[in-house]
TrEMBL record, chain A:
This is Multicomponent Na+:H+ antiporter subunit A. Residues 778-901 form the Na+/H+ antiporter MnhB subunit-related protein domain. The keyword Thylakoid does not apply. InterPro entries: CPA3_Na-H_Antiporter_A (IPR050616), MnhB (IPR007182), MrpA_C/MbhD (IPR025383), MrpA_C/MbhE (IPR046806), ND/Mrp_TM (IPR001750).
Automatic annotation (TrEMBL), chain B:
The keyword DNA damage does not apply. The chain crosses the membrane at residues 6-23, 30-52, 72-93. It is a multi-pass membrane protein. Keywords: Cell membrane, Membrane, Transmembrane, Transmembrane helix. It is found in: Cell membrane. This is Multicomponent Na+:H+ antiporter subunit C. NCBIfam families: PRK07946.1.
Length: 919, 136
């Protein structure tokens, strides 16, 4: 085909599928179901490209994740070429066929087209991947797309269940396969199959790799014991079954066996495993097929049986067996997809697939029947069809084989083929024969629909007729196997040979089996791996419920209790067991500490016992003030300042909310749990105290902060070491902290302001009916008088903080408290007058300024958040010592002011408004 | 470094009181528990640093300064606690508005799973639906 000899790259062709998948829904909306013809161009182009390169080997390689050994390594040798032709050719034909299969107004047709062509692309990628990891990626892509295609109509439970089943079984296999690939690739040092092929790895772990890879292959190809998912997957639309479950996806496993066979076939588990599971699957599924009444299910079980045949033949691992397998892959894809397409037509035009209902269809739809007979002849292995050529080759390979148990396998294949002949006859009889008076009356079958299965059926005949040249091509693949005995060549006629005798025997016995089908013993085979699957799934479900039920009790105190118990048991154990208890201790640094400590302890204990919310809160606040005094005594004025301010802000904030809640706490729960809580609390307290004691005592190394004072002056440009740490040395921590504050403020606002329009009020627009009624005029006047000095003081704290106690946090809190006092004195109106700006804007501006400082430092060539010190003599102002980290601190100041403003607007004004509105 | 026993005692009591309140169901009490716990943690961190004068160059000789690093950490923690308190308060208020109290209830979905486990039943979500129409 010279027209197809365009210089296409494999990667581009994969990309064409992807692009087509993206535009397919649009095409369907524009052109309706005819868009499927356009979509079919992607696989068609691939087919054409492959046919022009029949005997070439194409390789491409692109770097991807080279650290992991994953590259876009693509390679098309003979076996890959065969699969590309099948995947692309049948993909294009099935897409074209789908135009008539679906109703013009079919729901989800766009999705179908997109997923179908995406699947075709993934399948194409799979069969040309030369890197095992890349192959795995495509492998799982086909699994995912097949999941979507089986669940084409997700409103049906059967579809969902079948799709999930197929997904779970094949993904599980895929994971095992990945593990096998990794063992293989790591032991060989490469994941490229062409390199592995040239230097096959050796060693004991190879057997494990082989078994793992085969689990993946067998599950994908529905080989026993994984067969059950394929018949369930018949819930998919028939074109999907024709493509995925006959030609393409189920062939992926067989393809993998065929690809790896020439290299790994000699390893111990390979051959017996494949021969045993293959023959067993062929026989069990063949027998089950005979018992089906649904035509589509017959084909499904028949497919499982044929996949067993293919697995067994490739498992033979000899040159002639490989050749036979390749021929059978081609033959099976052609006849089985034809038959699926025929069943689709029968289903749509007669409304049934049950062979007990169908009767006389052969006379009413002779063309359809003829196509089915052509495909059936190939399936049964009648000369000169492709199926016959392949089966002859298979018989010959095992008849003249040298491997152990070859003759046993041959017997299995002969019996399996007999079953195949019998169910083929039963299929054709069931679909088309005159069985009873009630004649089936199909609607008209359009010619442009019938032509697609027709092409495939004729192709089956043509392949048989062209067996010799085709065999010449396939020999390139077969010759990869270690040579065993005389080379066999594909042909329709080899003379009167043993295999021909076996073929005749199979046909006669199959005919007899069909003839005496009524007298067959009604043995229902324990074939169903589905039972095991259901048991495992139910077991998983139960285990999940038990585990969740045992651990996830849904009770917050329970969870906290478990966590704290773990703390007490774990840390307590270490403290008792192995902790280095220090020998000496101080009672206190100054005796004042003891006085304050007594106050803290009394307040905390009383807070626990308090029954009224307000009492409890005031006691908690008192203990907080006590801690602030401890900070002063310890030599930490910045901490003390901040702690005083925060405790005050907290009390105001809590009171704002508590005045809306009931004065007393609700009834406490039963006494026993209370005793447990107190015991746990005391336990945690003791452990925490012990931890403090041991941890402080264990401190021996020189603290990193030893050099901070010097650094603070030389690099930070400030005397207040704590402040320099915050805005310079550990500025990233502070950046994270103010981000948390902004998030918390946003959380508060979104919990209180329930609707977007309510957020307008956060900007300070006073709501109706919330005036300053009942508030003291004198208080208002006084607060207005002190407001500006206090704000000025807060700015002073901000700027002096670098060298004296203060800084952005303390300054922001002071300004925030000034606003709080205004709000308490005059309500929303006063607050709006004092700060006519949205809290969100203040928060955002603060964060922006802080981040901006960091970014500017970076733009100026320094590190993020690096500080620059500028010393200048300016007229009037005198000597100015400017440190750029002040801008960072301004951001902190703004964030803190914004937080308080947000709290006042939310927990104060908006709650007031809601209470008034609620009456 | 030798531990200061006064700090050790304060840490112990604040932790114990905080945990007892934290394990309550009333959100207001939980909130107060969090505040007490936060103070306890701050004193714990403080106890790990050297005692001395304010860490301000020029005010205190370098050898007599208290350790500034734990102080910077505590300062951050104090302000974060403020944000957390505000958030918990908003939660308590919202809960009170919605259900009339501020108690943390057990998760109903979790209770349902516990009951399933007690009955030795699975979820079997698929079986609850009734849209089975067979295959096509």
């Amino acid at each position: 085909m010279p027209a197809c000899a365009y210089p296409g790259r494999v990667l581009v062709l994969v990309g064409v599928h992807a692009v087509m998948a993206v535009v397919a829904p649009g095409l369907v909306r524009w052109l309706g179901r005819r868009a499927l013809y356009v979509v079919a161009l992607a696989p068609l182009a691939t087919l054409c490209w492959a046919l022009a390169r029949t005997n070439d080997t194409v390789t491409e390689s692109y770097a991807w994740v080279s650290q992991l050994g994953i590259g876009l390594d693509l390679r098309m040798a003979t076996l890959n070429w065969l699969l590309v032709v099948l995947v692309a050719g049948i993909g294009a034909i099935v897409l074209a066929y789908s135009v008539r299969y679906f109703k013009p107004d079919q729901n989800g047709l766009g999705r179908y087209a997109a997923v179908f062509v995406a699947f075709a692309g993934a399948m194409f990628g799979l069969v040309v991947a030369d890197n095992l990891l890349l192959l795995y990626v495509f492998w799982e892509l086909t699994t995912v797309f097949s999941y979507l295609l089986i669940a084409q109509d997700p409103t049906r439970r059967t579809n969902r269940r079948a799709a999930t089943q197929a997904l779970l079984v094949t993904t599980l296999g895929g994971l095992a396969m990945l593990a096998g690939f990794v063992v293989l690739g790591e032991s060989a040092g490469t994941y490229r199959w062409s390199e592995l092929e040239a230097n096959p790895p050796t060693g004991g772990h190879l057997a494990a790799a082989v078994v793992l890879i085969l689990i993946g292959a067998l599950s994908k190809s529905a080989i026993f014991p994984f067969s059950f998912w394929l018949p369930s997957a018949m819930a998919a639309p028939t074109p999907v079954s024709a493509y995925l479950h006959a030609a393409a996806m189920v062939k992926a496993g067989v393809f993998l066996v065929a690809l790896l066979g020439p290299t790994l076939g000699a390893d111990p588990p390979w051959r017996p495993l494949l021969l045993a599971t293959g023959v067993l699957t062929m026989l069990l599924a063949g027998w089950t097929t005979l018992r089906q009444n649904d035509l589509k299910l017959m084909l499904a079980y028949g497919t499982v049986s044929q996949l067993g045949l293919l697995t067994a033949v490739f498992g033979g691992s000899s040159r002639n067996a490989g050749l036979a397998g390749a021929a059978l892959v081609l033959a099976h894809a052609l006849f089985k997809s034809t038959l699926f397409l025929v069943v689709g037509i029968i289903d749509v035009t007669t409304g049934t697939r049950d062979l007990r209902e169908l009767s006389g269809l052969g006379r009413r739809a002779p063309a359809l029947a003829a196509i089915a007979v052509l495909a059936g002849a190939s399936m049964a292995g009648l000369p000169p069809f492709a199926g016959f050529v392949g089966k002859e080759a298979a018989f010959d390979a095992f008849l003249h084989g040298t491997g152990a148990a070859d003759l046993t396998v041959l017997a299995g294949l002969v019996i399996g083929s007999t079953l195949t002949v019998a169910y083929t006859l039963r299929f054709l009889w069931g679909a088309f024969a005159d069985k009873h008076q009630q004649q089936t009356r199909p609607t008209t079958i359009a010619t442009d629909w019938l032509v697609w299965p027709g092409i495939l059926a004729v192709a089956g005949l043509a392949v048989g007729a062209a067996a010799k040249p085709l065999g010449g091509s396939l020999d390139h693949y077969a010759d990869l196997f270690p040579d065993v005995g005389a080379a066999y060549h594909l042909a329709v006629w080899h003379g009167f040979t043993g295999p021909l005798g076996l073929s005749v025997l199979v046909l006669v016995a199959g005919g007899a089996l069909f003839h005496y089908r009524q007298r067959l013993p009604p043995i229902k085979l324990p074939f169903d791996g589905g039972t095991a699957y259901r048991r495992v799934m139910n077991g998983l479900d139960r285990a999940a419920v038990e585990t969740t039920g045992a651990t996830q009790r849904g009770s917050l105190p329970f969870y906290l209790g478990v966590i704290l118990l773990a703390l007490v048991a774990g840390l307590g154990g270490i403290l008792i067991g192995s902790a280095p208890w220090p020998d000496d201790a101080r009672a206190w640094d100054t005796s004042l500490q003891l006085v304050v400590a007594v106050g803290i302890v009394v307040a905390a204990v009383a807070a626990v016992r308090a029954l009224r919310r307000l009492t409890a809160m005031i006691l908690v606040g008192l203990s907080g003030y006590g801690v602030a005094v401890l900070f002063i005594l310890h030599g930490a004025p910045d901490l003390a300042l901040t702690q005083f301010l925060v405790e005050t802000a907290t009390i105001v904030m809590v009171v704002l909310v508590l005045r809306r809640l009931p004065a007393k706490f609700s009834e406490r729960p039963i006494r026993t749990s209370r005793v447990g809580r107190i015991a746990l609390g005391i336990g945690v307290g003791v452990v925490a105290a012990g931890m403090t004691y041991v941890a402080v005592g264990a401190r021996e190394a020189t603290p990193v902060s030893e050099i901070f004072p010097e650094l603070a002056v030389t690099f930070g440009g400030g005397d207040n070491v704590v402040n320099v740490i915050l805005v310079d040395i550990r500025a990233w921590d502070t950046m994270g902290e103010i981000s948390v504050l902004v998030v918390a403020a946003t959380g508060v606002a979104s919990l209180i302001f329930r609707r977007t329009e309510a957020l307008q009020r956060r900007r300070g627009v006073a709501g109706p009916g919330v005036g300053p009624s009942g508030q003291s005029i004198i208080l208002q006047v006084v607060t207005r008088l002190v407001f500006h000095p206090v704000v000025l003081f807060s700015v002073f704290l901000l700027f002096s903080g670098h060298n004296a106690p203060g800084g952005g946090f303390a300054g922001g809190l002071v300004a925030g408290l000034a606003l709080t006092v205004r709000y308490l004195a005059g309500g929303q109106a006063e607050l709006t007058a004092a700060a006519p700006i949205d809290a969100g804007i203040v928060l955002g501006a603060g964060l922006l300024v802080s981040v901006g400082t960091g970014v500017l430092a970076m733009l100026a060539g320094g590190q993020v958040l690096q500080t620059a010190i500028v010393d200048r003599h300016l007229p009037v102002l005198g000597d100015v010592h400017l440190v750029t980290s002040i801008f960072f601190d301004i951001g902190v100041y703004l964030v803190v002011v914004g937080l308080i403003l947000d709290i006042l607007r939310s927990l104060g004004a908006e709650i007031d408004r809601q209470e008034v509105a609620a009456g | 470094m030798s531990p200061n026993l006064t700090y050790v005692a304060v840490v112990g009591v604040l932790f114990a009181a905080g945990v007892i309140l934290l394990l309550e169901r009333s959100l207001t009490r939980v909130l107060m528990g969090v505040v007490l716990l936060a103070n306890g943690v701050n004193v714990l961190i403080l106890a790990g640093g050297r005692y001395g004068g304010p860490p301000i160059v020029g005010t205190t000789p370098e050898g007599e300064m208290s350790d500034p690093l734990p102080q910077a950490m505590i300062l951050t923690a104090i302000v974060i606690t403020l944000g957390l308190t505000a958030f918990l308060l908003a939660l308590a208020y919202r809960s009170w508005r919605l259900v009339g109290h501020d108690e943390v209830q057990d998760d109903i979905e979790d209770r349902r799973i516990v009951e399933l486990a007690e009955r030795d039943a699975g979820l079997e979500v698929e079986d609850v639906e009734d849209d089975d129409e067979g295959t096509s």
